[in-house]
Amino acid sequence: MATSVDKGHGRIEKRTLHTTTILTAEGKWKGAKQGFHVTRERTVKGKKTIEDVYGITSLSIQQANAATRLSILRDHWPIENGLHWVRDETLGEDRCRVRMGAAPQVLAAIRNAVVHLLADVDTENRPEAIEWLQIHHDEARALIGIPQSE
């Protein structure tokens, strides 16, 4: 078991993680080394909410004990949320109506590549980088390895 408490921005969030290896003994999920249960207790302005989250991982107890697993989960969300926010808000992923075959995965991969490439543009944020590249075509082509036009 591991517990963490964060305070800030007018809220207190306590996370408690329990792990189990019973899943591996039962063999229900191929490759699963452990299961975990996280209880998130969040208090904002005196109002308390509790959320339970369950998951499985291919990391063994030796690779990620409860404290390490809790840290991995905590560090994962800002990255994941940031990427999805950029893909949705800047690149309009949720408005895309492509749903058939491999096209959704292909478009997601392209959007991930675009997000990565935009990080190399010297602007304040990604929407500004997109606007800048729309005006500076040679720099946009150079960013993806196409030589400048003459």
Notable characteristics:
150 residues; alpha+beta; 2 domains; four-stranded antiparallel sheet; 5 helices; 4 strands; 42% helix; 26% strand; extended; ISAs1_transpos; Transposase_11-like
Architecture overview:
This protein has 150 residues and is α+β, with helices and mostly antiparallel strands. The protein has two domains: 1-77, no CATH class; 91-150, no CATH class. Helices cover 42% and strands 26% of the residues. The protein has helices at 22-26, 66-90, 103-118, 126-135, 137-143; strands at 2-8, 11-20, 34-44, 47-57.
SSE topology sketch:
Layout lengths: L1 E7 L2 E10 L1 H5 L7 E11 L2 E11 L8 H25 L12 H16 L7 H10 L1 H7 L7
Antiparallel strand pairs: 1-2, 2-3, 3-4
Overall outline: extended
Q: Tally the helices: what do you get?
A: 5
End-to-end gap: 63 Å
Unreliable segments (pLDDT under 50, ≥5 consecutive)? Answer: none
The major β-sheet equals: 4 strands, antiparallel
Oligomer: single chain
**Amount of beta strand:** 25-35%
Spatial strand arrangement across the major sheet? 1-2-3-4
The secondary-structure element order is EEHEEHHHH
| Class computed from helices, strands and strand pairing | alpha+beta
InterPro entries: ISAs1_transpos, Transposase_11-like
Q: In summary, what is this structure?
A:
The protein has 150 residues and is an alpha+beta fold. 42% of the residues lie in helices and 26% in strands.
